[in-house]
Design a protein that fits this description.
Layout lengths: L12 H25 L4 H24 L1 H9 L2 E2 L6 H14 L5 E5 L6 E5 L4 E6 H6 L2 H17 L1 H16 L7 H11 L4 H13 L2 H12 L26 H10 L1
Parallel strand pairs: 2-4
Antiparallel strand pairs: 1-2, 3-4
Helix pairs in contact: 1-2, 1-7, 3-7, 4-6, 6-9, 6-10, 7-8, 10-11
Length: 258
């Protein structure tokens, strides 16, 4: 796949470090407090600190291993019926074969807007389509939308967005949202700034039919979506309030020229 058309993401290391520090700092403080209460000697203090560090590393790894499950739960999706949504299954199979990637599992969101999301950790990938996309799009439009999902999976963008969003979800939309500014900055730094435009171009190269995706973006621009900003980077069309979203008019103009 053309790397210029499907930009590769950045490093995820700062994401893991941020999570480990945020989890580990309270554990270290607790270890120091326990040591002070017990009037512990240097060896005991070192042991307590080591336990805190190991526990923080374990919790970070455990979170990483479950990011796809966490996000699917957050999106409140269900398995797509293979009969009712046979068209989407068939398109995913064909597009995956053309791209050289394994076909993702298909899930359905009850959102009535037109949208789709790509989720991938280390193993199997998942494609999420909204009920609106399943019911309102014709075959060529749905192919254009799902092509962008496959492109994101193939380029590594889906994994980067999944890991970054899932790891830092407690800090962007959760009990520790007072850390949302640095967490959001780290997520955006892990993703290519032109991922939407590059994904659009790679998707239409895959389908060889720009009007399909262009029509989807045009329809999405008329919807008032229910996609949460905290998971917006997973979706082909992020919510209009999302700070990292490219203007839809720009994406439409590029596809028209393409």
């Amino acid at each position: 796949m053309d790397s210029a058309a499907a930009p590769e993401p950045g490093s995820l290391t700062p994401i893991f470090v941020f999570y480990a520090v945020c989890v580990g700092l309270p554990l270290l403080i607790a270890a120091v407090v326990v040591a002070a209460v017990l009037s512990a000697g240097p060896l005991t203090v070192a042991l307590l600190v080591a336990v805190a560090v190991v526990l923080a590393a374990y919790l970070t790894r455990r979170r990483y291993q479950r990011v796809d499950e966490v996000l699917l739960d957050e999106l409140d999706v269900v398995d797509a019926d293979e009969v009712e949504h046979a068209r989407a299954y068939n398109l995913l199979e064909a597009l995956s074969l053309r791209s050289g990637v394994a076909a993702p599992e298909l899930y359905l969101s009850d959102d009535q807007t037109v949208n789709a999301a790509a989720i991938k950790q280390a193993g199997d990938a998942a494609a999420v389509i909204t009920a609106g996309a399943a019911s309102r799009l014709d075959r060529l439009q749905l192919e254009g939308l799902l092509a962008e999902v496959i492109v994101r999976i193939a380029s590594g963008d889906a994994r980067a967005a999944t890991v970054a969003t899932g790891m830092l979800l407690p800090f962007t939309d959760g009990p520790f949202s007072f850390l949302s500014n640095p967490a959001t900055a780290l997520i955006d730094r892990a993703l290519h700034p032109d991922r939407e435009l590059g994904g659009d171009m790679a998707a239409v190269k895959l389908t060889r039919y720009p009007p399909g995706l262009r029509d989807v973006l045009s329809m999405a621009g008329q919807d008032s979506g229910a996609v949460a900003s905290s998971t917006g980077r997973l979706w082909v069309i992020p919510p209009s309030s999302h700070p990292a979203r490219h203007d839809l008019d720009l994406r439409l103009a590029v596809l028209t020229e393409f």
